[in-house]
Amino acid sequence: MTNHSQPSDTHIQHTTLGRSSIGDRYSRQIRYSHIGLEGQNQLERSRIAIVGMGALGSVLAQHLVRAGVGYTRLIDRDIVEWSNLQRQMLYTEQDANEMLPKAAAAASRLRAINSSVTVEPVMTDLSSANASQWLEGVDLILDGTDNFSVRYLINDFSLQSGTPWIYGGAVGASGMTMTVIPHETACYRCLFPEPPAPGATDSCETAGVISPIVDIIASVQATDAIKLLSGNRDALHRTLFQVDLWNHAWLPINIDQARRSDCPACGDHHRYEFLNRQDRETVATALCGRQSVQLTPGVSAHLNLDDMAGRLSVMGQVYQNPYLLKLQLAGDVTFVLFPDGRAIVQGTEDSARARSIYAELLGI
């Protein structure tokens, strides 16, 4: 229910928000009539997961942590690189130099922004094997990924668990977003029944991306998140909201009637194909915006990076930090290994070559 109260500064200091400094922090947001004191307290009690801490995820996390969402889980598989700094607002040159995982670097910066909320970094590749572990226990899931398969996975989990999620994507100067309320609105597969064929759509790797479109799409996502979490569900935009920023075109498409009875995910014979996958093969994924391939093993590992550094040092120079090790190979190829067995092969877009390097170095 929308809250139209406009509390005074004195009232703010005596709320469940606690210290007057906390009330001061959110005072301008509380004065906004559609949020008010009750809406702010609901934000404080809310728990969210952001999947993907790249460009969209950086903006989402900053808005929602600053807004006072009580608990934010950051899920990301990647490390900070120089090509990220043009549009991924939470990261610095030092993060790139140190090859910090995005989730860890983002969590550190967000905690410095708002120490009164909880931020949990999770350095992993979200998959059918771990989705229930990392997406359970939250009130809302936000999409900051650049990966179609992960979006279909989130959609399946959302429908099975009843957890709302907010889709977002941006490429070039265009983007779109929609909010999915399970079994109430159209789901992602109602509009996009199957993932596109490889190479059938543009990505930021092939078409590039400008930073302002990221800010706009993520801000629309964050606004719907604030509406939902503060008790203003009736104010959700309920459209497939599309923007072509370069040509100044704004196209919200009403999707009130878009829910399909024959949808493979939420229809009469729903099945959660992406959530129930039992893949055991190593999956290779080209990463957006650079010559890199990520390898994700079908079975999670628990590697000792110190032991691995010793074994791999005969192959070339090894750099190590608490989160990963980096092996420099011949031909300007770099092998980055994580404790869960994931690896990023930098310097190639050839998935077969990346798989070969992974198998040779790890013996699988």
Features:
single chain; 364 residues; alpha/beta; Rossmann fold; TATA-Binding Protein; 2 domains; eight-stranded mixed sheet; 14 helices; 14 strands; globular; disordered N terminus
Count of individual domains: 2
CATH level-4 homologous superfamily of the largest domain:
NAD(P)-binding Rossmann-like Domain
User: Could you tell me the radius of gyration in angstroms?
Assistant: 21 Å
What fraction, in percent, of the residue positions are helical? Answer: 25-40%
What oligomerization state is this entry in?
A: single chain
Along the chain, the helix and strand elements come as HHHHEHEHHEHEHEEHHHEEEEHEEEEH
Total helical segments: 14
- Name the average pLDDT: 89
**Biggest sheet features:** 8 strands, mixed
CATH topology of the largest domain: Rossmann fold
Shape designation: globular
Q: List how many beta strands DSSP finds.
A: 14
Strand percentage: 15-25%
Spatial order of strands in the largest sheet: 3-2-1-4-5-6-7-8
What does this structure look like?
The protein has two domains: 46-254, Rossmann fold (3-Layer(aba) Sandwich), CATH 3.40.50; 283-362, TATA-Binding Protein, CATH 3.30.310. The protein is built from 14 helices and 14 strands. It has 364 residues and is α/β, with parallel strands linked by helices. Helix 5 (55-67) packs parallel to helix 12. The longest helix is centred in the middle third of the chain and has 19 residues, at 211-229. Mean pLDDT is 89; it is low at 1-17. Belongs to the HesA/MoeB/ThiF family. Pfam families: ThiF.
Overview in brief:
With 364 residues, this protein is α/β, with parallel strands linked by helices. The N terminus is likely disordered.
